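hey can u check if this looks right to u? its 343 residues, i copy pasted from the old doc so theres a chance i mangled smth
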Amino acid sequence: MSKPRIHILALGGTIATRPDTTGVMQMGLGADDLVAAVPLLTGIADIEAETVSRVGSHSLTFDQIHALATRIHALKVDGIVVTQGTDTLEETSFLLDLLLDLDIPVIVTAAMRNPALTSPDGPGNLLAAVRVATDPWVRAHAKALGVVAVMLDEVYAAVDVLKVHPTRLDAFASTQTGPLAALVEDRVVPLALPVRDAVIAARAKLGPRPSAARNTEYKPVALLSMVLDEPGGLIGALVRAPDRLGYGGAVIAAMGGGHVPERVVGGLVQLATVLPTVVSPRAGGGPMLRQTYGGPSSEIALRKAGLIWGGRLHPVKARILLDACLRAGLERPGIAELFDAFG
């Protein structure tokens, strides 16, 4: 029986670093180097390795991930593994999930410990990712799973996975839902299938290939966090600037179940009239309130004033989705309907 064909696309990140002459870690390893470090890979799959870039994920761009999605669409293989840095894995994996509707596994993985440290996790994570990509249950449920992240022997849905610690090995988690599967010995143990109605609805509204055509009026999305005693200066600057400081939309990381300081409400309401403005929970995700608290800065008042409710999406994921909406040329009513599906 022939082995599954797995294509590895390497973007850089800690998993692909090596020390320079001073001992400082620098980008340098390519896909072939990553594969060579894990001899067991060739026993479970026919591996194709391709170096896409050698850049830390903190410097990746939306355009690069859109181009990566186009590249993935063109591949004729049984599964895809993307290696990158951990800094933006929670964002890039969700963007890929919005852009790709494939019936093969697409796995994103990375490393927390660089290759110069004792027990680096990159080789183990790459091996685990390929095991997941070749697993019969994963392959049979690839469309239902969507893009997934594999870190430290656990499998997470792209829409839910978060980096919850800057340095620990167990830096990734899905705090709302838990993992979809776990790796034990050489087995993938299924635990759950994700609820993907909102992602499927988003893909339908964004179009079959949002990466194929960028709206000529596209502008990036700002992310502003609400904190104790926030005066709202940045909100005011966005409202007053004729070019909105170059932004085409905004995400507000709100307090609690969807609240902001009363002093910024006027600015936020004005902002919502000039830019699509999404409210998302700064607590890290989870369905927000809709009709519990009163007062000018409550969820009831903000929703009535025209702010778009981000549902259960973490602010950084809400920004990914709003960016995709703007690239697709969606108007505010369509954007609001799309976000409403996320709860």
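The longest helix spans residues 62-74.
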